[in-house]
Amino acid sequence: MEQQYFEQPEDNINVQEILRKYLQHWKWILLFVFLTCGTAFFYLKVQPSTYISTASVLVKDDKKGSLGSNVDIFSDLGLAKGNSNLHNEIEVFKSRDLIQKVVRKLGLNAQLTQKNTPLTADVYYYKNKTPFRFIFADSTQQKYKHNFTLVIDKVNNTNVYIQQKTNENGQLKTTTIGEVKYDHFFNTKAGAVKIIKTEHFTDEQLGEKFNYKFQSLAAATDRWKASFEVNTVNKDASVLTLSAKGVMKQANNDFIDQLIIEHEENAIADKNEITKNTSAFISERMKVIEEELSDVETTNEQFKVDNRLVDVQKNAEISLEQDGAIEKEIVSTNIQMSLAAYMVDYLSEIDNYNTLLPANLGLMDQSVNQMIVEYNKLVMERNKYIQGASESNPLAVKLERQIASLKPSITQSLKASEESLKMKLKKLNKEASKYKGQIADIPEFERRYREIQRQLQIKETLYLYLLQKREENEIAMASTLGNVKIIDRPYANNNPIAPKKKIIFLAAFILGIALPVALIYVRDLLDNKIRSVEELEETDLPVVGNIPQSKKREDLFTVGAERSVIAEAYRMLRTNMNFLLEKKEEGHVVFLSSSIAAEGKTYTAMNLANTLALTQKKVILVGLDLRAPKLAKYLGHKEGTLGVSNYLANEDLQLNDLIMKPENDIHYDYIFSGAIPPNPSELLTRPRMKEMFEQLKQTYDYVIVDTSPMALVVDTMSVLTYADLLLYVVRANHAEKASIAVPQRLKKEGKIDKIAFVLNGSTRQNGGYGYGNYGYGYGVYGSEKKKKRWFKG
């Protein structure tokens, strides 16, 4: 039963113990929480708020059933437009060239800020609210290639003090410009600049400090491109959401608004480019037709005058009905041949890669029409690539090769079509000759007249056809719409998206708890000291005592009816120790030792002996530390008083001559260590040592022996066989964890049967091994102060 009392519990995780270990450092945790939350508070004070502006646009895409699928009323005139692809529009909106146009047009590469106090965020100015305007003398593209910052200080009503900061080869360089008057140019990295006060300049700006940050167009474009996003609403709708992030809500709104405008202008320009080229081609051909038509009409007029004709004779109408149908075919074929010939001539005149071919002229050969459409598409793509770069762009060169290879194909197809039309015309003329034989009796002048009329009809028909096409192109140009329609105009939410105050405060709070907990955890990992009784309980040896740390400079706490926390701890030690000692007729020999000096074994031995004596037992305390004896000093005697060393060295000296009787608050007998011998280890092995313990056991109920530290010398090892119980004193926060291996080894090697730990100087409030808080149920006794609650520190 006695052994079972000290069996160790199962190795389970004790959550309460873990929490208690960290909560005893609650002041540090509270301090870290205060610091991290305070840091978060000041960070949020100086960090500018970031807002997001959003807008929604509807993409006119027939595939999604959006606007434009039912309004193409000019499809019968060959003016139908291609469908806009949703993902293509996303890429167009995000294109660098488009964003760069917006940045330059709105001046978003420059930003004026007013520097405030260290605990407040800077003020950002935009457009009409700014107190200053900056005018560059150089309005060319050259000024957009530089990055610099103007620090404007000592602001007054007449001038300012300016410094220029630039980044050259990764190093920040500051150049002093000095005092500059308003409306006067001064030199910067981007050329001459002057500052103009606006009507928004007030006395509040006097003496303040401003920063004017000017970015290159490329850097500003990258910044706005990174803050801009385009997303689809869902897969079933042709609606895009445009969003821009920044510190100024109005700048975000203007950016999105201007982006949509620029996008629409580009889309309309692209759609009208072919129409413009077609109109130019038609106008050019109409001038030629007008001259040819004028010549035919003059010939017709002269012929009528010469032959005195007023009206065409009616007598051949019946014979000419069938001939008339063929004539119509001949006219139509001649028109097609003329158009093919015109296109061949036009192609031969083109000596560049940026001229579009006229479309929708009415050519019957669909393969030729398809090649013309493909040719125009390649030209437009090539023109787009060279807008933002040079003509040596690899993609543009590749497209030029495709254009060059396609141009001969178009010419060859036109010539093939022309040859086909010639064959058709030959066949029609052959058919017409049959009917001409039937009207052989028509006068020669009438046949000549019909030839003139045919030429006149061909020219008139071609002229009217081209006139109609020109009007159709003008109508198409006037009716061209963009690819998107605005659903929701740009709108900025009043709540900033960054910094996220709740998340930052929560993170700061968690960090404030995690940092000290992590530090405590790391400290515990690196800690090689014994801190609590739980660490001793992890061994296979029992723990019979946990003596709290005392703030009083006293050696004896077990005095009379003393009911202090420490006195109760010694009573608990006494009770637990008795469970380990077997009942026998003679007295019990209890050794007290430790690994190193200054662990309180003598202090513990004195109080243990006194608390045993208070139970009406005969107790003697023997000082057996022959190398560094302290018992005499603690009990108020001179060092070198006769003791065990004298008894072992002098056989004439009797044991009774050494025994000191109780006095004052001491209730036990005691024997000092005696004079420090030169050979303590050999002295302890003499036969008189056994005689001493035999005699003491016959006289006393408990023989408490204060021995030397076991990790330093072998003195205690040589007399360990006389002990019934070894109390191994471990001082909390002083003894190293490796030191508790000594008693474990003694137990394993069988050098003593019964060993138990006594934790001395514990700073933990909880007993930890079964008897709860010291003083439970007793209130405040003796001179010990009432313990504070944990939350009061």
Describe it:
A hairpin with a 2-residue loop joins strand 8 and strand 9. It contains 21 helices and 20 strands. Among the domains are: 15-47 and 499-526, no CATH class; 112-205, no CATH class; 533-778, P-loop containing nucleotide triphosphate hydrolases (Rossmann fold, 3-Layer(aba) Sandwich). Helix 8 (317-349) packs antiparallel against helix 10. With 793 residues, the protein is an alpha/beta fold. The longest helix has 59 residues, at 249-307. The protein is elongated and about 180 Å long. The chain has a seven-stranded parallel sheet, sandwiched between helices. A six-stranded antiparallel sheet has the order 3-2-10-5-6-7, with no helix packed on it.
Task: Give a short synopsis of this structure.
This protein has about 800 residues and is an alpha/beta fold.
Walk me through the topology.
Blueprint: H1 2-5, H2 15-23, H3 26-46, E1 51-59, H4 86-93, H5 96-106, E2 110-115, E3 123-125, E4 132-136, E5 148-153, E6 159-168, E7 171-181, E8 186-188, E9 191-197, E10 209-214, H6 217-227, E11 228-232, E12 239-246, H7 249-307, H8 317-349, H9 366-387, H10 394-438, H11 444-478, E13 484-492, H12 501-526, H13 533-537, E14 543-548, H14 565-580, E15 588-593, H15 601-613, E16 619-623, H16 631-634, H17 644-649, E17 669-671, H18 680-684, H19 687-699, E18 702-706, H20 715-719, E19 725-731, H21 741-749, E20 755-762
InterPro entries: AAA_dom, Bact_polysacc_biosynth/exp, GNVR, LPS_length_determ_N, P-loop_NTPase, Wzc-like_C
Subcellular location: Cell inner membrane
Membrane topology: Multi-pass membrane protein
